[in-house]
Each structure stands twice: as C-alpha cells, then as structure tokens.
Design a protein that fits this description.
mainly beta; 7-stranded mixed beta sheet; 53 strands
Length: 702
C-alpha cells in the first residue's frame, strides 16, 4: 500500500505471487510512504524502487510518517542534564492534533518546517535563525518528550516576542502546572525577542512537558515562541527568605529584601548587573531612596521582571495590600501573586512627579490563608519612559470583608454551595451595578431585557453569549461556614479568550484561558480553587481578553463545591445500544443533560432508527421541596429517581409529555436512571424538572 504524506492511499496491490508490482506512473511531486503487510509467518522481503523524471529531492527533511501515537520529534526524548538543553518550540512531539498539540486552526498558517501539521510555524529572525511558533492563541498547547538525567531544581528560560501586552502562558510537567502564569510583555514586535525565566523542579526520568498558552494579548494572539531552555546546577540554590525568616503580615516587606536563590528562583531581571549599584550584588536594580524611613528601593523595573518574598500569615483573613510606588511617567502596571495566583489584578503606577516622589496604592479584599505564603511582585507593563516604576515596600493589613452593595440576587436569595449558578441569573441592579456590557441591547434576545446578551443553550435553559473583554457579571452567593472550594465554570468558544473570577472585588482565580472547544455550543468545564470566608459574598465574572473572533466565549453556569482544583463530573453516562431492547452492541459517552431531537445516528456506530439508550448518574436538588420531572419522548421512556420509578411510558408513540413527582432534600445526591428507545422515524428524548423555587430546566448531572 502506498500513502501520500497526508495519509491518503494512492495505490495498492494484493496477491499471492512472488512479484507484486505497484505503479505510480504520473504521480505528483510529494512524499510517499510504503507499507508491506504479510499474511504469512516469518516473511522476508526485498524492496526495489525504480524512479525516473526530472524532479529534485526536497530541500527540507520530510516529516515523520502519519502516526496515532505520541513520540519525540527527533526519535528520542530530549536529554536534560548538567548542561543547558535548548528545546526548539517547533520540535514538538509527533502524534498530531489533540495528542501532541492543540491548535485552533487546521493548517500551518506560517507555512514553514512542518507544513502538514496544524501548528503555525514561521521563519525567525532571532539570533541563531530557524523557526518560531506564530499566530499562537489562548487554549493552544504543544508537548515535548524529555528525559532528565538529574533530578532537582531547573531554570526554565522562554524566548518570546509580541507587539502587545496581555498574553500569558505556563509550562506543565506531566500535567501539573510547574511555573504558574507567565505574562508575555510587549517586546516591540513579533520578531523583537526577550527571555523570561522561571524555576521548576524535575525528578530524574522521562517527562512530558506541555507549553500551554493561556490568554491572548490585545492583538488576539498570546505571542511568538522561539525556544525554551532548561538548565540545572549540581547543587541548585534553594529559595529562602532574605535574612532567614519570613516577614509577618502587618510588617513592611522591603522591596530590596526579595528571596535568596538567584535569577529564576528568588527574582527575575531582564538586565545583567545591579544598575542602581546598592545593597545587593546580583541583577536586581537597587538604589538609595529618599522616601520617608530611608533605606533602598527597587528601580529601573521593566515588564516581565519579578521578585519573590516569603510572608507568614498568623491566621486566615481578608487583607488590604499596600504598595509604595513612584514613577516619572504614567502607564506602568504591576500585579501581586500569592502562591502563584494573581490576587490583585492589574494595578497602575501613576505619574507621581518623579522617581523619588512616592505614593501608596491600596488593593482591598485579598484573602490570605494561615501559614507561610510566597508573594510575587510582577511587572506587567512599562510607562512611556520605558520603566514600570520604582518600588519601596509592600504591606498587608487586616481589613473587614466588604458587604455586598448595589446588586441583589436575581432569584431573591443568594446561591449556595453545590447549587448551579446559571449564568443568565446574574444579580439585579442594572448596568454598572450588577453587570457591565459593551452593548446596550440583549443581542441573544432571550430571557431578560437588559444589556447582557443571552441565548438559548443546547444544554438547556440559556447561556450568556457574545461576551467581550471588559464585560462582567455579579452573582451573590452564601458560602455557609466558609472553607476551600472548587469553582467550576461551564464555557464554550470557537477561538477562546480569557476571564477571571473576583470575590468581593479581589481576583480569586487568576487568568483562566477559555479553550477552543469546537463551537459556541460545545461546552467544557474549567475549575479553579478559591478560598471563601463564611457568609455572603459577591462573585464577579470578568472577561479579560477576546479570541480571534472578537469574543471571549460563552458562559453557561458556575458552581462552587467543597474540594480544590478539579471539576466534579458533569452529566450522565449514556450507554447506546443498536437495538430497541437495551442489549448487544454499545457505544458510551457522557451527556451533560438529556435533551435530544435526533434526525440521524445518535452516536457513531449506532443506527438512526431502532436504537435504545440507558442514562445513569447523580442529581443534586437545590431546594427541599417536591420536584416535578417532565419527559418529552418519541418513543418509549421511563425514569427512576432514588430507585423509585416515577415515569413509565415505555411504548411506541408520537412526541408526548409525561410527568412524575418526588420529594427531594436540598444538597443531597440522588441516583438517576433513564431508559429510552426509538422505533422508527423521529427520535426525541428530553428530561426536565421544576419545584416551587426551581424554574423548569433540563436536569443537570453532577
């Protein structure tokens, strides 16, 4: 069998003779692969290729043959050891879309190097030449197989370029975020390159590194990526508090007292040497300050630089962050992270009238958990003078939780733990109070008559659509006795932007990239860990950046539940049978809800008629009330809740609505089973519920 390099069979021959001839007379230019298959045992072959024509061999090496397994691009994992290893971004693993990489477009828009792949590669003008990844968007990723000969701390350097700020990315090791979010600065152009550094830890042995692109800049792209480099020392320096002990909350954190450990561990600076020439002898720029109290300040700061500080929090609580800053020009920006999470959002450094004319910027509503925490001061953008600003000190001071003001719960009472927060049920209060939308009318035309864009969702009820950077929605919640929660968000996008979630005005999640899910109604669930103190709070969903289509993404619902970092399973397990009696050949998938009106096969491998389905899963009501369940079916359907058969119409019929009732307790999880079959013709299966306090909706699985 002869394949073209796109996987198409162009010629084949099969027989039992000793001489099989395959002719490619008139074949076009390209790369071809030959597969020989034998039905015998212990075969041996000789292969003779006769070629004629005027074609020339390709100037670039051909790509590897089509593969369904992931493997290193150059045949063996990239070796990491005592010397630095540079990993070219374009040398991602073999395996294709969804396995070795994820790209939101099917073609290589740069048209270079690996032209049969979907990753966008172009020629680079960076030192050393070669290629770089281009047209990179939030939600995309590339993977690289490596082998670490030495376990321990590594410095990861990333070579990036972008004409705009706002993009971000991170590096994962075996599925775990190893760097935290890294902002891509405005470097001045797509081929003006800068190196960003982070510290990571690797155990000895094989690993899969994933370069994950989180958010787009204002131009719609995350940035360009040339290479990343991993290097280690035999005895790497450990990060530790400067002076030996962490600063206790309430005391000043002097900017010049960043952690020890060196570049990429305790700090990152874009220039070599201390330009201020004071206090410490590494690369952070420190000068003497004329601010009240004297001492030193960190100066000549630039976008992409950062410094770390260990602090001690005696008891959990809500705090205000104070930052002492100065700059001779406006436009500088920074943020503060705690244990890798951006807790402040972007903060501007004003023009204070001079590099030693100081002012204090305060950000309230920051939740800190008891214990030792790592604070990172990150420079995001430069002012018109080329510097982000000067920093003298930081401090955290205790503050009360701000009481929710202005907006009120849409359904009359705050949402509670484990309850689905439907996106369209944002608070009442209007534009600028309960929401902000960049258009005055509801472009989806559904449910509510204000400016938020709401449309019908394929998963039941509605979703908020046409979202754009700068828009936001408020939801009043009650966290009960408080604690650590996982916050789930159900999103969909064709390209995908980014968003974050605030609690009482403080960024609680950091930037969350919305992946390209394959369509505006193909939803996926994202999850982040948040800390909530007891009582009532206001959640604000803030859309930060748009995808290439000009939209951030669609939002169906939110939910917060006990746990951390991972979403609860969502939906029902649907087992599909290729007959009417729930037996024989099957196909299985997870369905977010039961809401189908099929006119073709319900799932690959199952016919369009005479099929059956059994759905099983869990449901969790929000209210202690009697619930009415509704089925709309063509043909037979029956429903069990908590082992009780409440609807039974297992017969051939036209589209018919049936109902059943059962008393349920708020927050309790119940088993659900639904059996359905289609005879011939149209096939409809829909399951909804309602209660005195629960509006009628498609039943969601938990």
């Amino acid at each position: 069998v002869v394949y073209h390099d796109d996987g198409e069979i162009v010629e084949s021959s099969f027989g039992t003779g000793n001489n099989e001839i395959v002719s490619l007379s008139g074949a076009g230019a390209g790369t071809y692969y030959i597969e020989v298959t034998s039905l015998g045992t212990n075969p041996s072959y000789s292969l003779t290729i006769n070629a004629s024509g005027t074609g020339q061999p390709p100037t670039n090496p051909p790509p590897p043959p089509p593969t369904t397994t992931q493997s290193p691009y150059h045949g063996s994992p990239i070796s990491l050891g005592s010397s630095a290893a540079t990993i070219q971004a374009e040398d991602f693993d073999n395996g294709g879309q969804g396995l070795a990489y994820n790209d939101s477009t099917s073609a290589n828009q740069g048209g270079q190097y690996r032209t049969s792949e979907g990753v966008d590669i172009e020629t680079t003008s960076d030192t050393g030449g070669g290629y770089n990844l281009a047209y990179v968007r939030g939600g995309e990723w590339t993977e690289y197989s490596v082998n670490a000969a030495i376990g321990g701390a590594y410095q990861a350097d990333f070579r990036v370029a972008s004409p705009a700020s706002g993009g971000s990315f991170h590096l994962e090791v075996d599925g775990v975020n190893a760097t935290g979010s890294i902002a891509v600065p405005n470097t001045g152009g797509y081929q003006n390159w800068q190196t960003l550094s982070r510290a990571i830890n690797l155990t000895a042995g094989n690993h899969t590194l994933r370069l994950t692109f989180d958010a787009n800049a204002s131009n719609g792209f995350t940035g360009n990526f040339n290479w990343f480099k991993l290097s280690t020392n035999a005895a790497p320096a450990a990060e530790a508090p400067y002076g030996g002990s962490a600063v206790t909350v309430g005391s000043l954190i002097q900017a010049e007292n960043y952690n020890t450990g060196g570049s990429g561990v305790g700090y990152y600076d874009t220039t070599a040497g201390n330009s201020g020439g004071k206090y410490r002898s590494d690369n952070v720029d420190i000068e003497q300050t004329s601010d009240s109290g004297g001492g030193y300040d960190v100066s000549y700061t630039k976008a992409g630089e950062w410094t770390d500080y260990f602090i001690n929090v005696p008891s959990s609580g809500v705090f205000a962050l104070n930052a002492r800053v100065a700059n001779a020009a406006a436009g500088g920006k920074f943020h503060v992270e705690v244990d890798g999470t951006n807790v402040t959002g972007s903060l501007g450094v004003p023009s204070t009238g001079g590099y030693q004319s100081w002012t204090t910027i305060t950000k309230t509503g920051i939740n800190l958990s008891a214990g030792q925490r790592k604070v990172r001061l990150v420079m995001e953008a430069n002012a018109s003078n080329g510097f982000a600003g000067n920093f003298n000190w930081l401090s955290f001071t205790a503050s009360a939780v701000p009481a929710p003001t202005g907006s009120t719960p849409y359904l009359g009472t705050p949402f509670v733990v484990d309850q689905f927060i439907e996106a369209e049920n944002y608070d009442k209060g209007g534009e600028g109070v309960a929401y902000h939308d960049t258009t005055s009318a509801n472009q989806g035309g559904k449910y509510r008559s204000d400016g938020v864009d709401i449309e019908t969702s394929v998963e039941g009820n509605y979703d908020v659509a046409y979202t754009k950077a700068g828009e936001w929605l408020n939801y009043t919640i009650n966290a009960g006795s408080g604690g650590t929660f996982a916050l789930d968000a159900r999103v969909a996008a064709v390209y995908g932007g980014s968003f974050h979630v605030e609690v009482d005005g403080a960024n609680a999640t950091g930037a969350i990239a919305i992946p390209a899910t394959g369509g505006y109604q193909r939803f996926t669930t994202l999850s982040r860990t948040i800390n909530l103190s007891a009582g009532q709070h206001v959640l604000r969903v803030v859309f930060d950046s748009n995808g290439a289509d000009g939209f951030a993404g669609n939002l169906n619902w939110l939910r917060f539940h006990a746990g951390s970092g991972s979403a609860l399973p969502v939906g029902f397990t649907g087992t599909y049978f290729d007959n009417e009696n729930l037996s024989g050949t099957t196909a299985t998938r997870t369905d977010a809800g039961i809401n189908f009106n099929w006119s073709a096969s319900p799932i690959a491998g199952i016919g369009a008629d005479t099929f059956s389905v059994r759905w099983t899963g869990k449901i969790r009501p929000a209210y202690s009330q009697t619930y009415t369940f509704y089925t709309t079916s063509d043909d037979g359907i029956r429903v069990w809740v908590d082992g009780k058969l409440i609807i039974d119409n297992y017969s051939i019929h036209a589209p018919t609505v049936n109902t059943g009732t059962i008393a349920l307790t708020a927050g309790q999880t119940y088993d659900l089973k639904v059996e359905y079959y289609d005879h011939t013709g149209s096939a409809t299966a829909k399951l909804e519920w309602s209660s005195p306090s629960q509006a009628k909706q498609v039943v969601p699985g938990v």
